[in-house]
Structures are given as C-alpha cells and as structure tokens.
User: Fold this.
Amino acid sequence: MIPESFEYHAPKNLAEATRLVGQFGADGKLLAGGHSLVPLMKLRLAAPKHLIDITGIGELNYIREEGDRFEIGALTTHFQLESSGLLKSRCPLLPETAREIGDVQVRNKGTLGGSLAHSDPAADWPAAVVALDAEMHAVSASGERRIPAKDFFVDLLATALQPEEILAAIRVPALPARGGDAYAKHCHPASGFAVVGVAARVVLDERGNLAEIGVGITGVGPKAYRPAALEEALRGKSPGRKRLEEACAHAADGVEVNSDLYASAEYRGHLAAVYARRAVEKALERASENSQIS
Amino acid sequence: MKIEGTYMVSAPRQTVWEHLLNPDTLAKSLPGCEKLEPQPDGSYHAEMKVGIAAVKGTYHGRVEILDPVPHERFRMKVEGQGTGGFLKGEGTLTLLGDGSETLIGYSGEAQVGGVIAGVGQRLVQAAARQIVQQFFQAFSKRLA
Amino acid sequence: MRTKILGERIKRKEDPRLIRGGAHYVDDLKLDGMLYMTFVRSVYAHAKIKSINDAAARSVHGVVDVLRGRDLEGKLGNVPCAAGLEGLKIPDHPCLAPDEVRYVGEPIVAIVARDRYIAEDAADKVEIEYGPLPVVVNPEKALEKDSPLVHSKFADNVAFVAKLEGGDWKLVENDKSLKLIKQRFINQRLAPASMETRGVIASYSSGEDALTVWSSTQIPHLLKTQLAVMTGVDEARCRVITPEVGGAFGSKLNVYAEEGVASFASKKLGKPVKWIEGRRENMQATIHGRDQINDLEVYVKSDGVVAGLRCRIIADLGAYHQLLTPAIPTLTALMILGCYNIPNVWVETIGVFTNKMATDAYRGAGRPEATYIIERAMDLVANELNLDPAEVRQRNFPSPKDFPLTLATGVDYDTANYQKTLKKVLKASGYSRLRKEQERLRKKGKYLGIGLSTYVEICAMGPSSRMPAGGWEFGMVRVEPTAKVTVYTGTSPHGQGEETSFAQIVAEELGIPFDNVTVYHGDTSVVQHGIGTFGSRTTAVGGAAIFGAVQKLKKKMARFAAFKLKVKPGELIFDGGKLQTADGSKSIPFGEVVEAAYYARQLPPGVEPGLTEQMVFEPPNYTFPFGAHVAVVEVDGETGEVQLRNYYCVDDCGRILNPLLVDGQVHGGLAQGIGQALWEDHVYDENGQLITGTLMDYTLPKAHHFPWFETSNTETRTPVNPLGVKGVGEAGTIGSTPAIVNAVVDALKPFGVRHLDMPLKPEKIWRAMKQAAAQA
Assistant:
C-alpha cells in the first residue's frame, strides 16, 4: 500500500475529533475502519491531506438499550453487532445484516458509522437503517443534530453530513410485539457487496394483517431507498403470496437501476423484486411466530 | 459506456441554446470546472476537477462543439488527460419544446482509461450519471 | 520389515515456517543501499508515444534515475520467447516500450528512487502524450481483412497457424450415417492472481562484474541464462536466487520485462534495485490464461461412438509473446481427444495478436481448454442421442489393455484405466440415486444438475525433443559427514511440497529418518542445473532425477559397507539406519559408512572419497494422469444462482508418494477450475481497457464458495519414470471446469438449454431460463 503522503491524527475523544474535522474541512478525512477509504488511498484515487483516525475513540463504541429503542455508537464494529445477544433478541435485523457484510476480517475492523457515512450504493447497512427509520446522530464542534435515515443518504457516496460533522451514533426502534424482520441479499461473489440487498421489518395486527411495513433496498440504485409503491401495496393488507409477488414487482419503481459487469439493470431489477419478496416473506414468517408466542 | 437521458429546464429553447454555447455559463455549470478558455480553432481548453466524494481527479483537455444546428442540436466532443488516465466522450445534445420549457436530450459514448477504468467498474456508470445530473441542475439554476 | 515413508500421509516440512510467518519472500529481503523501482504503464491499449515529459518526476527529491525505452536500446535485450513453431511471427518486445504501446499496462518508464513512496510520487508526475491508434480486442475481429494491426510491420494479426491431422478425414465426411454435432465454445481469459505478486531484486557488483537476482520465479536457471543474454553479463557470473514463492500457477514460468529492467538499472547505478508488483499491475501485466474460441464439429455414430472430431481454435495471444505464449494453444490441439480413442481428428490452431496482455501458461496451460472441448462434446453427444453421459463415455474409452496407445493426434498415452476411475466416482457420488433425485425434484420445479468429466492430461513435461528449452531435470544427493542428507533439485517448487516428498524418497531409499533429509532448490549457484517447476513435472521428472542420484549413492555406500563387512555390495539392504545383508547376519550403521567415505582411511579399490551423487533425468515420454469427476449443483429457478452442492473426484496420478500432498494439489486445482466455470472472467472493454482490474471485480474463488471436496484416487503406475508417478499439480483444474458446466447445463435440461458459455453467472442462466419460458 503506497498512498500519497498524508498527516495522521488520532484523536482520543469525540470533542477532539470534531475540532480536527472542523479545522481541516475538505482536506480531512475520517478513518473509521478503513475498508472503503484505504483501498481508495492505496490506488491513489483518494489523497486526503489529513487522515483523522477515530477508531480509538471508545466513547463511540457501544450498544445501548433505551426503552423501545437502541442507540448504537458509530464505531461499533460489524462483528460486535453480529454477535450482540441483546440485538439478536430485540432487534435481530441488525445482527442478520451484519453477518452478511464482507468477510470475517472486514467485520472485525469495519464499523457501522464508517459504512453509513461512506454511503456506498451497495453497502448492507443502509438497507437496514432505511427500513428501520433509524435516526442518525451527527455531531460537530458547534452542536449536534438528528437526521432521519430517509434524508441521510443523498446520492452516490454522498450523505447529508456536513464536512465539519461526525456521525456519532444511530438510533433504531426495537422489534415490536407481533413484529418480524429479515435481510435477504444477493452477494457479489468477488467484493461481497450487495448486488441487491433487501431489509424488511413488518408488524402484524391482531388479525394477521400487515399493520406496518418498512423495506430498505441497497445495491439497486445510487443510494439505499424505501420502495414506496411496494410498501403501499401491502400496508394494511393481508399478505398472501400473490399479493406479495405483485407488490414486490414494484421494488425498483422510479429508481435508475445500476448496471455493471456482474448484473445488468434488467437483471438487477428482477433480483430486487425476488429478494424483496424473500425478505418480506421471511419477516412475515417471523412476525407470525412472534405473534403466536405473545 | 453509454450515457443518455433527458433533462427538462424551465426556459425557452433559444435561451437554453444560447447558454449552452456560452462558455461562462458552461464553466459555471460543469461540476469542478476550473477553467474553460476559448481557443483560436473554436474549441475550448478545459481544466476540471472531476469526481465523487473522496475520489477526485484533475483533468485538462479540450472541449469541442461540432455541427451546431441552431436551437436544435449540436455534437460535443470532450478529451481530457489527468489523474492516472484519460477520459473521452462524444455525444449529441438535442433541444425540444416550443414554450417556456425545453427538454434537453443527450446521448453519447464516454470512455475512461487508466486507473478509473481498471478499478471503478462497479461505480463508474452511476458516477457518470450523477455528474451529468449535477451539470444540468447547476445549468438550470443559471437559467432561472 | 522396512520402515515405510513413501506413500505415507506426512505433514509438509514447508508448513511450519509458512504458517508462523518465518518464510522469506523477495519483498522480505533488504540489501544495503537498495533502491526501489516503479513503472509508468500505458493507459491506452494502442497508441504512439508522442512525447514523455519526466522533468517533474526527476526533480522529486530522492529520485535516482528515470529510464525510458530508448535508454535500453542496444543495452538490454528484448523479452524472450522460447516457443518454436513453424512460421511463427515474433514481434520485437522491448522491456520498455520505446515509441508505441500495444496493451494497457505495458511499461513505458521506470523510476528508480530511494524508497517506494518517492518512486510512486514521481511516477504520478510523468507526463506522456499519446497518439491513440485503432484498437483490436476481439481475436475474431483481428482476423478480419480490415482489422487494425497490432504490429504494423506484419501484414496481418495472425501469429501462426498450426494444423494437426490424424486418421482418414475423407472417410468421416463420406459416411452419411454419421450425425454431425456442432458447437462453439468460448474459453474465457483468466488472471492467475497468485497470492504473492511478482517481485525482483537485482544486485550488480561492478568489481566482479557479477549480477545476482532474487526473483519470484518458477524457473531460476532458465531466468539466469536469459538475463545473461539480455544484460550481457557473463553467465558464469550471473546468479538467480528464488526465495519463497507465494504461488505462481504458471504465471512465473516466464522471463518478464521488469526482471530485465531491474537488472539493467542495477548495472547502470551500481546499487541493488528492488521492484515489487502491485495487485493492479499483477492483474494487468502478469500473463493471463486461456482465451480461446473453439469451433467444434463431432461426427458420431448412432450408438454414441465418436468417429471424428474437427476443431478450429482461435487463440488470443495478446500483443506480444512471453516465454511460451504461442506454445500453449498447441497443447490444446494435442490433447483434444481426451481419453477417447477417436480415430479421426483435424485441428487448426490460429494464434492471433490483439491489444491485450499476453496469454501464457496458467494452471493446466492448454489442456483445460482441450478437456473442456472434449468433455462438453461428450455431453452434447449424450444429449443429442438421449443417452446417459456416463454411458457415452464408457462407449468411447479404450480398454486398459490397449495401452500404451498412440492416438490419432500422434500422442503416445502411457497407461490408463478410465473405466476404473469412472466406476469409482459414480459409486462415490451415488450417481444413479442422484439421477432419481433429479427426476423427483424436476417435478417440483427444482433444478438439480449432475455433471461428469472424465479427463486425461499430458504431464511430466517432458521429453527434451519436444520441449522448447530442454525437458530433463537435475537432481543431486549428498550425505554430509554428520550423516544428515542434503538433496538438491533443479526444479523450483513453490507450494507443491517437494521439500517433503523428495525427502520421503531419499529417506526411504537410504533407510534413514525423514527428518534427516533437507531439500534445497531455487539457487543457481547452489543447484548446478535445472529446468523448473511447471507442467506437473516436478516429481515425475525432478523426483526421478533424485531417485536416480540416490541409487548411484546407494551403490557407492554399499561399496564402502561391503568393503568393511567383507560381503558383496549387491547383497546390502538400507533400512533402520544401517546397511545389512539380506539374511540380517551382518550389518553396519549408516553413520559408520559415512565416516568411512569421508575419513577415507581405507578406500575400496577404485572408489573416490565422499558421498555426493547426481543425475540428470531425461524422460522418455510424457505421462498421462487421468480421472473422473462428478459435480452436483442446484440452480435457483427464479434467479439463476448456482449452488455447488457436492463435488466428487477420483484422480489417478500414478503412484502416490504422499496422499496429503495429492489432496492439497487436488483441492487447490478444483478451486481454480470451478472458479473458471462459475465466476472468473478477465474482461477488456472494446477500447482495450481492462475493467476487471481489482479483486473486487475479478472473482477469485474463496473457501466459503465450496462444499467439502470428496477426493479419492486410483493408482495406475507409469513406466515412464522409475517412481511410477505421473503428476497431479493440474489435475483438479483440468477435470473440474467441464464437470461444473456439464452439471449446470444438465440442470437446465428442462429449459431446453444445450450449452452456455463460461462463466456461468446467474444473469446468464436467468436469461436462458427466461428465453425458454418465452418460447414455450
């Protein structure tokens, strides 16, 4: 790895980090695991003058239960999310998504915040946080703000974070009663990225109809999104196989579908429909199991 | 790589045409354009910082407008060299509409060479699309 | 009873140092005053170099030298090609392109600097003005009359045309009862992608006029000769050292421009110069494998017996010849009949220049292509005649009694029992049960596919009369005065495990502990001669040389022992650390014989002191390992995704010296062969840009892609060498690719699919299923 030269900073706490980020602006770049940034630097496609390594900031690494929500520090690693017993029982979508990311090495080093702030169009986390209506907690030297997930992903590799802001934490709702969630992914065999990844959370009402549904899709367009038409076609309905199939045919409506060497836009669109159905089906199955228990 | 699409701007065709051929508007609309200087042969010398997020390349090269049919269409040829490679593109822009709105259609072929071509396969199409979008958004802002 | 070492599952001597990180690769070596080199490479597939501005690069602090093509003119020879084919066009291949580039990644400028960072910084500052020229990427288009020329000094892009004909082709054409089956196969381009990329350190000493080169290569001795020729340094003062090599798969069976430029730079600057290849360079500027188009015609009788096979091979050679580039596709022609005694054959091989990196030997080297053609053909025959693929193969196998067998291709197969491996693999896989399961699942809309491949390969390269630069191998065995044994081999193993298997041969023959034997290789000043490791030859040729040397040594030791024991030398047996008479009545410890040989106080008449013997083994023929594989896949009817459920193989590589090594070779080979079938594809776009330039885009198989491989063997020995071994380095790769494709195509039978080209990506399969649904 022979990158261009850069100055390396390793702030010890969030306050110091926000000060450095504010100071260097566009010349600075946060390192929060490095699985996206470091390859770019290696290829000399990215050459930040200042590399601000925040991986040592312990205060940003936690999984905290707050009533019916979880707050997760941005520097929590994929592996920590994957292996959290608390999340497995109360917010299983996150561990299930984490398990699908890259390989063991990537999961040990890569972080939730690092992945979200990079906003790779094929990363796994954006699907989950969009499906869960997560809230992103951004901090800068001058204050903090909460950004809803639907506003967080702006475009290809672009988020609503300002240059002086650091993504400090995300908040997600725990799995409610009669709820179920699932992540279904067609994995690129080389990169491990999602060719298509669909996260779904559903909540059934007492009669077994779909009271709530949140679906997040990654890999398909320039950024992760909620398929409005798909959700609309199912919300409040009884979820039969035929209705599911019809609804999921709208998984990529209104999206400029990505096309690359591995999958054309047409095939990717098809995969979006299939994987959306598989994710929702699985989530429904789990929701109905959870309904029987409660 | 094929790049094609349409963009609707809220201005009559004649205005759009004039601005599209105005180096000042163009320079201000082209994402990352730092210089666009008319050359004696009718082409422009351009210097641009093109890129997405942390990935930025500096390119210098030529922009040429060919076969203009006033208020209807022209061909555009771009050639640049820079960070680890080159980019080349050729396409046609067409203008449609008779009222206060104009539909700009674009269709062309772009080619990248060097490091971006070798490593950016997964994202290059989406990135190109985003840069084109950024251009038209900035351009229509200039018109407004 | 004799201690058994040969044939045992002994753990590799190499592994502890590799696993613990104690091994030394080229990049681990640092020499005093060492400089670092990097290359500026072409970003165009074809262009004139109009100008090079390196002023800014030269002014970077720490840059020592900037070299261009014209700096090498008359001072450094071209990249060599050893392949000799009739009428072969050999283009000039300078180590740095002086005025025209012909593929993306071709080196143009070399920067030598104090460290690697400085060199890379300076490389970014070199400005090259290109004049783009028309590009040709598709080899078929390159054959068209109006195609752009890769080399304007030649009239066309045809590098060579080779014909191979056997039997009576007229007879086939006139036999109207024969059914003709035609198919085109695309055997896509692959990247060898060894874990360790290439690397070289050249160190020239002006006082001695001596050049020492450390290189990650498969062929230290050949490299030494070639570097002597290229640099003009007296070969007697050239030395090549091959430290640990982290994989090669044929890609380091070569002499590369970078090795030449590093040697030149060191000679010019008087300091050691190191170059380590980056992964991106490795993807674009290390040789590629495969890349053929095969148009096949099979003439078959109604019972499934094939009467004739005709094939036109278009081989994409890339822009220049590397060491063996044109020779590789000729191996495809040679082995195109596989393990079937097809009496009539006609093959035309056309080697074509394109604006791409050169192709050359990659694991299997020409034989995977041949096996793919013939094994797909067998399935096409089965499909056409509605016969079971196993049955069609049976009907075309020669009998074990027919060997040695000369095929219509003129190749002499040594020994085989194809029926036995097939029978064994059918049993292991539960083949007939699988067919029933397939039937059941199809009714439920699930698509199970069962694929067979019964292959034969040509190995143990080879008889010198048929090799470009000698096919013999050198071996030497020395018993040290402490009774420890040193073995020297001219092969250059790099992962195959011969430090273990050669020690087994010697320990067993001398009747001493395995741990007392150490194997050396890969240093031209330590090992006198050598050819190298490739073509599944190391044990079958190199091991045979060791075996020969140890026989000579035993004879000599027996003379010393017999002299002392006052018996006939021929009566002595080496076992348990001593030499003893057959009846066990007299014996002498191994160590005492060694002392006698070295102290030399009383020499047997006519015997010289010391215990060093050597042999150069010249193989009388190739060997022909074979095997039978069964792949079981499930295809997702909705998405076209392929799940490899089971893999069974029975490989016959002759006598097995160490089953653990054989398994290791087969596992790795299977991964690469399956990789080609399902994922790997090195893609250039129509402008000649290599768009699979990283391992994020080029799919190398990973462990989690595979089920456990069910491997087993039969042992049919060869008379070609005294060990009876045939070679196994490439078997897995050669056998598995068609098994997988046959399995997927078999799964898609309900959709009327008869062929799909590799790699079998889900989208391709989905489209095939969709098309079938649309037609129904």
Observations:
- Chain B has four helices and seven strands.
- The mean pLDDT of chain B is 89.
